[in-house]
Specification:
Layout (H helix, E strand, L loop, with lengths): L10 E4 L8 E4 L22 E3 L6 E3 L5 E2 L17 H6 L9 E5 L5 E4 L16 E5 L9 E2 L6 H12 L17 E34 L2 E27 L6 H6 L9 E2 L9 E2 L6 H23 L5 E29 L2 E8 L5 E3 L5 H27 L5 H26 L4
Length: 425
């Protein structure tokens, strides 16, 4: 009888946790190019693994097994794509691993989470009205991402320092840092390259001073002389970022947007293990229009700066774009919310640099006292001056008081505006 080959056809050797014992498993099914399913079960105990933002890689939550990541750092040399139909047709879709989608009935956000996630509230608005569905595989798959560099502990330290960094906030606010409900999340971002070449023409005003004789006396007057000017401007844009989601405050997104793209790595589903992610809800075409608008406005400003003076009228510009390309990437952020009194406040942290943006409650009693202190000297000096005027002594003190009062009003206005920005999103 002919001996059967071992291992049998269709089986390959698997890692064994017991020395001297060989283990074989069926050959994984071929799921097609770019659609390989990634297994995040621990090879030692079979438990669920999660991405470790401290050192990267996968760490088992049960037995501590650690698998170092294979980071293919590509940085600014990451491939860019042209605006061609075939580019979109050949692009991979989905996350490349099993995920589930949660749709928030409160704000409409759609979040991708690991299948074992027990998320019960929306990280954007805090709503507990979530609808769970199998993960969508329709959206483009990101080709690159910026990995997390900050751990949860470091992030909370940063938030605690930020919460207590202003004298305008309540004194007990800093202690709430531990209560901030933080969620590590990869956010979608489009980046665009392009060259803008502009030809401009405008009337530019030049102030001319001249002397003339009137009634036997020489007098001086100024007038504006308008002259036509023109020029050419070329601006090149590299990795102009446009958020891929409209579910987050654009103010907060703008404040944490400075990611170092020299840290870009090739996308691997392992980076998403244990983390939330969000697919883009701003499509490529819409993002490109937003990028073009920013390029156009910056080029327009460069054209106006080329004029010999800042007095400009009848400005016109012809603009051409070229060398246009794009990337779809993921960037790391911590998204959180906390409550102070009856109000809810948002906070976001750049998961690479630690930059913080968010809302903070204002202690208007402190602000009011500060504004009062700024106004008090001017009010008192002005009142003292009015008394001197009534007594016929003179109005010098009153005049000085008015000056001090005006300065106090300006300082008070600045304080008020700064206080308003603390909760501006």
């Amino acid at each position: 009888m002919e001996a059967q080959p071992f291992p049998p056809a269709g089986f390959v050797e698997a890692e064994s946790s017991v020395d001297g014992i060989l283990v074989y498993r069926p050959v994984p099914e071929d799921t097609g190019p770019g659609e390989a399913v990634v297994d995040f079960s621990c090879p030692r105990c079979g438990g669920t693994t999660a991405y470790s933002v401290g050192g990267g890689g996968l760490r088992c939550e049960y037995c501590g097994y650690y698998e170092a990541p294979e980071r293919d750092v590509v940085g600014k040399g990451a491939r860019e794509f042209e605006f061609k139909v075939e580019t979109m047709e050949r692009a991979a879709h989905g996350w490349g691993t099993e995920r589930k989608d949660l749709t928030c009935e409160g704000c409409g956000a759609q979040i991708s989470v690991p299948p074992e996630s027990m998320t019960v509230s929306c990280p954007f608005c805090g709503s507990r009205k979530l609808i769970q569905r199998p993960g969508s595989q329709d959206a483009l798959r990101p080709r690159f991402l910026v990995p997390f560099e900050m751990t949860d502990e470091a992030c909370r330290r940063t938030i605690r320092e930020w919460l207590g960094s202003s004298w305008m906030v309540p004194g007990d606010l800093e202690r709430l840092a531990a209560a901030v409900d933080l969620t590590s999340m990869y956010l979608p971002t489009w980046t665009f390259d392009g060259a803008a070449r502009a030809r401009w023409r405008a009337q530019v005003g030049h102030t001319k001073t001249e002397r003339y004789r009137s009634g036997g006396e020489w007098k001086t007057r100024t007038r504006t002389v308008w002259r036509w000017e023109s020029g050419n401007v070329t601006r090149r844009f590299d990795d102009l970022p446009i958020p891929g989601t409209a579910r987050l405050s654009p103010v907060l997104m703008e404040r944490i947007k400075d990611f170092d793209l020299s840290g870009l790595v090739a996308y691997d589903p392992q980076f998403l293990a244990g983390s939330h992610a969000q697919a883009y809800d701003v499509p490529l075409e819409e993002a490109w229009e937003a990028a073009r608008h920013r390029m156009r406005e910056e080029t327009r400003a460069a054209c106006r700066d080329q004029a010999s003076t800042s007095k400009i009228r009848n400005f016109s510009m012809e603009l051409d774009f070229s060398d246009e390309s794009w990337r779809y990437i993921l960037v790391p952020a911590y998204v959180g919310a906390y409550r102070y009194g009856a109000e809810a406040y948002q906070v976001m942290v750049n998961g690479q640099t630690g930059e913080v943006a968010g809302q903070r409650p204002v202690d208007w009693t402190k602000v009011g006292l500060a504004i009062g202190a700024a106004l008090a000297p001017g009010v008192l000096i002005t009142l003292a001056g009015l008394v001197t005027v009534l007594l016929g002594i003179g109005g010098v003190v009153a005049g000085a008081g008015m000056v001090v009062l005006i300065v106090g009003i300006i300082i008070g206005f600045v304080i008020f505006q700064k206080a308003r920005r603390l909760d501006d999103v």
